[in-house]
Design goal:
heterodimer; A: alpha/beta; Glutaconate Coenzyme A-transferase; 4 helices; 15% helix; B: alpha/beta; nine-stranded mixed β-sheet; three-stranded antiparallel β-sheet; 12 strands; globular; CoA_trans_fam_I (chain A); transferase (chain A); Acetate CoA-transferase (chain A); 3-oxoacid_CoA-transf_B (chain A); NagB/RpiA_transferase-like (chain A)
């Protein structure tokens, strides 16, 4: 199992049945592959559909039905198409139960930076700022380090996405919960020790109780 | 009853330097023939307010490539390297706005509101230079209304009075920008007799639409 699959399988356990969930593009979108059959959710794509479905069969793509990355999708029974004001009204208004987003950095305050690297990458924030500010639960799904450098840091050096404290960080090494007191290490991946995780983490990790082994869907 | 105009006639209405609201999300739901006509007319110095600049060779990306644009207000330019290159070279001014804030600023401009209070952007560069207002103990950013000289709306179909119907994820910014410009030009895929679009399916009432683009050549 590669790192991304491990992360997606762990995040899938956070998804509760009969909820509205928005998955970011890239790694977060893999979470949909690992939901148990008995967990029914509606996926939102912020460009305007509730009830996002899988990729359509070859030759049956509808040019008017894409996800937020511009890829062709289908819509599931019970889906609704909505305009951008409704879509972001749902996000900001507390109607979106959960979002899963990638991260460039998360810090000891639980602040996320995921939209720009000054001087290098300025793609724009798209919907990320609204999603982090507005979703009921925010899960960051990312690999633990970038070229060996920790992505979990004392204070973000990159511009923040929002002031809101994210609810959970899932990496291939660990599950970490940002709290008022700091980052609490909840689970450690099979075969790794707490010290292994600490060595790859730039911020202090609190371990009030012995962490469990990282669960996987 | 509207009179359908050609893409060239539509482009002739729009002067250099105009501010355009353009519908579409990564070119899905964009008014493609209107964009082509603006490129053909060699418009310059446009300000484009839209979700994104699509990608080179598609949708709004064609206007970027044609160097028809002086300023962009958008939430995302990441899939169009030409937008980024022109921005870095100082040839194109780009204001990045969170997507939910952008659509509400346009909505505010369209429905007569003096602005929007939102928590989105607090603690980020988006908040720089903006007023913060406390309401019932919560802090919000004041985001001001946006309007355009023209709204270029892509839609599924229109009827003869200009009622518009949209399709799936091609709604996106289109129904909102139709409220927020002095002149609204709609580009439907097909134009149908009055009554074919049931009143419940009309998302943009025809009274908002100034011009309909003639049907595409078959």
């Amino acid at each position: 199992m590669n790192d991304k699959e491990r992360i997606a399988r762990r995040v899938a356990l956070e998804v509760e049945r009969d909820t509205l969930v928005n998955l970011g593009i890239g790694l977060p979108s893999l979470v949909a592959n690992y939901l148990p059959d008995d967990v029914h959710v509606f996926f939102q794509a912020e460009n305007g559909v509730i009830g996002l479905g899988a990729r359509p069969p070859e030759g049956m793509e509808d040019p008017d039905l894409t996800d937020a990355g511009g890829g062709f999708v289908t819509a599931v029974p019970g889906a609704a198409s909505i305009d951008s004001a409704m879509s972001f009204g749902l996000i900001r208004g507390g109607h979106l139960d959960m979002t899963v987003l990638g991260g460039l950095q998360v810090d000891s305050h639980g602040h996320l930076a995921n939209w720009m690297v000054p001087g290098k990458m300025v793609p724009g924030m798209g919907g990320a700022m609204d999603l982090v500010a507005g979703a009921r639960k925010v899960v960051v799904a990312m690999v633990h380090t970038a070229k060996g450098a920790p992505k979990i840091v004392p204070d973000c050096t990159l511009p923040l996405t929002a002031l809101r404290r994210v609810d959970l960080i899932v990496t291939e090494m660990a599950v970490i919960e940002p709290t008022e007191d700091g980052l609490v290490l909840r689970e450690v991946a099979e075969g790794l020790s707490v010290d292994d995780v600490r060595a790859a983490t730039g911020a202090e990790l609190l371990v009030p109780v012995a962490p469990g082994q990282m669960r996987l869907a | 009853m509207k009179v359908a105009i050609s893409p060239a006639e539509a482009a002739a209405l729009i002067p250099d330097g105009a501010t355009l609201l353009i519908g579409g999300f990564m070119a899905v739901g964009s008014p493609h023939r209107l964009i082509d006509a603006l490129v053909a007319a060699e418009r310059k110095d446009l300000t484009i307010i839209a979700n994104d600049t699509a990608m080179p060779g598609r949708g709004i990306g064609k206007l970027i490539t044609a160097r028809a644009v002086r300023r962009v207000v958008a939430s995302h330019i990441g899939l169009n390297p030409e937008t980024q290159a022109q921005m870095i070279a100082g040839e194109l001014e780009v204001e990045l706005v969170p997507q939910g804030t952008l659509i509400e600023r346009i909505r505010a401009g369209g429905v007569g509101l003096g602005g929007v209070l939102t928590a989105t952007g607090l603690g980020t560069p988006v908040a720089d230079g903006k007023r913060q207002i406390e309401v019932d103990g919560k802090t919000y950013l004041l985001e001001t209304p946006l309007r355009g000289d023209f709204a270029l709306v892509g839609c599924h179909q229109a009827d003869y009075v200009g009622n518009l119907e949209y399709s799936l994820t091609a709604h996106n910014f289109n129904p909102i920008i139709a409220l927020a410009a002095d002149v609204v030009i709609a580009e439907p895929r097909s134009i149908v007799p009055v009554g074919v679009i049931p009143p419940d399916a009309v998302k943009t009432p025809g009274i908002l639409v100034d011009h309909l683009l003639e049907r595409a050549p078959s």
